[in-house]
């Protein structure tokens, strides 16, 4: 299992920098092949535009089967617009091969991640 924590500075990111950061995490995921991932998006303050949602579907989600990712839990952000865009990019994905869920607490997320798939 790995944990990825977004920092409050995401509010100032541009799209290309966000993509670059995500690609770095994908490289790590491909090397370590975690079956479970916790994304702490409680400080994620970036609204994912529809075009970027498509990029996630076509460029990011296709990596997870290669890394054997089975579950991905998200800690929710207090920024309602960022949260809606985050959930939408997961719910609308065509290439999603993993279970995903959203949580208010890390304890709930970890408990869900540890359950058998």
What attributes characterize this protein structure?
117 residues; globular; STAS/SEC14 domain-containing protein
Number of domains: 1
Estimate the global geometry from the Cα principal axes. Answer: globular
For the largest beta-sheet, the strand count, sense and barrel status come to: 4 strands, parallel
Distance between the ends: 14 Å
Q: Structural class of the secondary structure composition? A: alpha/beta
Strand order of the largest sheet: 1-2-3-4
Q: What value does the Rg take, in angstroms?
A: 13 Å
Number of strands: 4
What percent strand? 15-25%
SSE arrangement, N to C: EHEHHEHEH
Ranges where pLDDT stays below 50 over 5 or more residues in a row are: none
Number of helices: 5
Could you tell me the mean pLDDT? 86
| Residue share in helix | 40-55%
Explain what this protein looks like in three dimensions:
Helix 2 (50-60) packs across helix 4. The longest helix is centred in the first third of the chain and has 18 residues, at 15-32. This protein is 47% helix and 16% strand. The model has no long low-confidence stretch (mean pLDDT 86). It contains 5 helices and 4 strands. Helix 4 links the parallel strand 3 (71-75) and strand 4. The protein has 117 residues and is of the alpha/beta class. It is globular and about 35 Å long. It has one domain.
At a glance:
It comes from Microscilla marina ATCC 23134. The chain is of the alpha/beta class and 117 residues long.
């Amino acid at each position: 299992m790995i944990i990825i924590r977004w920092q409050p500075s995401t509010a100032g990111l541009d799209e290309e920098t966000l993509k670059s950061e995500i690609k770095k995490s994908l490289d790590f995921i491909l090397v370590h092949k975690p079956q479970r991932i916790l994304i702490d998006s409680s400080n994620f303050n970036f609204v994912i535009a529809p075009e970027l949602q498509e990029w996630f579907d076509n460029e990011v989600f296709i990596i997870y089967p290669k890394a054997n990712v089975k579950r991905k839990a998200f800690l929710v952000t207090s920024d309602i617009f960022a949260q809606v865009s985050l959930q939408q990019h997961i719910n609308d994905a065509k290439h999603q091969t993993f279970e995903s869920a959203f949580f208010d607490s890390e304890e709930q997320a970890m408990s869900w991640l540890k359950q058998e798939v």
